[in-house]
Amino acid sequence: MDQGNYSRVAEFVLLGLSSSWELQYFFFVLFNFLYIAIVLGNLLIVLTVISEPALHTPMYIMLSNLSVLDVFLASYATPKMIHDFLHESKTISFEGCMAQIFLLHVFAGGEMVLLVAMAYDRYVAICKPLHYATIMNLCKCTGLVVGSWAIGIMHSLSQLAFTINLPFCGPNIVDSYYCDLTLVIKLACTDTYVLEVLMLLDSGLMGVTSFLLLLISYMVILITVQRHSSVGMAKARSILTAHIIVVTLFFGPCIIIYAWPFSNFPVDKVLSVFSTVFTPILNPIIYTLRNKEVKSAMHKLKIRYVSSKLLSQLSLTR
């Protein structure tokens, strides 16, 4: 049928996490707290890395960029979800829905590539320590960070190109708290089987490639670490453990969701919340609790802040 005969829907209806008002009030308080913690915790890492010259190294530059991505990943849908908990009508405009799809794939795709870059950094540092300064210079680090954002944007544009021109002529109910691409595309008034397969291959190729690269790099690193028992290798083992935990938390829900990409199960909502809310709040906790350099830099930052407050108070009393 001619797509010109269709009138495009102006908005989509989001069913949210629950229809129970009691649960929605509870979720409002819970996710408000978690979102504030995500923003403050990750921005604290960024501020710490910026303010401490000793942390101006590739590993910590990429860690601060991971924190920025985590803030954005938590922000593309969480504030609206929190807002919707207090409103019976949970709608989003067509343009807002497409924006959510675009931003999700930019930040998630960028984070996948950045995690691979961080694994490469650890591989060079542990397996080729004498050449680390030469290989992982500032130019290479900047290229890896910029590249992760660029790949995320290109991946997202490829996903959006499949979706934005589809004829959405009637059905507009999305059983989620955000515009999940796999659910939105099924609302189109046309056969989307081929597009679903293409999008699955696009996201799957990126996700599987990133995951395999991470597995290979960490296997090589673990073998290298096991062959040595020095203090430096013990520190490397601690950092590596933090990286593996973060990778597992990020890729685990993605793998489960994309195992059944176009079927809607209740557990999908839980996994989506875990990816966009709990992973961004766990990342700063994992990295700071297991990293003496970051904790020491945060302590220095705290001392400088307290000292500046005391000096300002003294100047006011004179």
TrEMBL record:
Keywords for this protein: Cell membrane, Disulfide bond, G-protein coupled receptor, Membrane, Olfaction, Receptor, Sensory transduction, Transducer, Transmembrane, Transmembrane helix
Ranges in coiled-coil conformation: none
Bilayer topology: Multi-pass membrane protein
Taxonomy, superkingdom: Eukaryota
TM helices/strands, residue ranges: 25-47, 59-78, 98-120, 205-225, 237-258, 270-289
Molecular-function GO terms, alphabetical: G protein-coupled receptor activity; olfactory receptor activity
Record CDD domains: 7tmA_OR4-like
Gene Ontology CC: plasma membrane
Key word Kinase present: no
Annotated Pfam families: 7tm_4
Start and end residues of each G-protein coupled receptors family 1 profile domain: 41-287
PROSITE patterns: G_PROTEIN_RECEP_F1_1, G_PROTEIN_RECEP_F1_2
PANTHER family: OLFACTORY RECEPTOR
Function summary: Putative odorant or sperm cell receptor.
Assigned protein family: Belongs to the G-protein coupled receptor 1 family.
Name recorded for this polypeptide: Olfactory receptor
Phylogenetic placement of the source organism: Eukaryota, Metazoa, Chordata, Craniata, Vertebrata
